[in-house]
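Re: that backbone. Tokens:
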């Protein structure tokens, strides 16, 4: 069963985002929505998809070249992601630090994706960390309420240090959190340091 789960699970490499100082300021989500947990928060560097554990670990090995000084971001607006008329997610876009994260993703994403034999992503980096999704069966009124919720969020301009990079996959405890970190290291630790 474990091998099947690992083959079905999505894998990605991301930058963990701390919920400290701003997460509790989000208003309660409307009906028909699903909130991420504080431990799920991340900015994706490279989405590997259902590549399997072996390919994901190869991508993680390749990610050792992804080195930067720690980056400081601050939370900006909550924006819709996915289809314009039917967003699949709502995410916080960083205010401060946005360019530094974009540069980091642009520099290393293709290297990481190639190592996992995953498709290249031609889009320009758009750093964000998802905080909520509409449920698949959400009524259109619930979706409109979630869009209004997102527009109403005013988050404090706190500093959030981005200090680690991590290999993620789906959590086996999906009722508690969506993702789990399989491996992680400081973002300023290059090859040969763990």
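Recovered sequence:
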């Amino acid at each position: 069963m474990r091998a099947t789960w690992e083959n079905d699970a999505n894998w990605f490499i991301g930058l963990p985002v701390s919920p400290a100082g701003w997460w509790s300021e989000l208003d309660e989500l409307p009906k028909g929505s699903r909130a991420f947990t504080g431990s799920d928060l991340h900015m994706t560097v490279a989405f590997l998809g259902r590549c399997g554990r072996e390919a994901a670990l190869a991508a993680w090995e390749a990610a050792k070249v992804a080195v930067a000084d720690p980056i400081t971001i601050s939370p900006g607006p909550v924006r819709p992601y996915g289809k314009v008329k039917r967003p699949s997610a709502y995410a916080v876009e960083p205010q401060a630090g946005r360019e530094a994260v974009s540069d980091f993703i642009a520099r290393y994403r293709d290297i990481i994706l190639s190592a996992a034999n995953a498709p290249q992503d031609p889009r320009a980096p758009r750093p964000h960390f998802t905080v909520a999704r509409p449920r698949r069966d959400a009524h259109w009124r619930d979706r409109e309420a979630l869009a209004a919720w997102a527009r109403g969020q005013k988050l404090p301009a706190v500093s959030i240090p981005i200090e680690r990079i991590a290999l993620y996959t789906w959590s086996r405890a999906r009722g508690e959190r969506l993702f789990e970190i399989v491996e992680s290291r400081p973002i300023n630790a290059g090859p040969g340091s763990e």
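The longest helix spans residues 98-115. Residues 2-184 form a domain with the Cyclic Phosphodiesterase; Chain: A, fold (CATH 3.90.1140.10).
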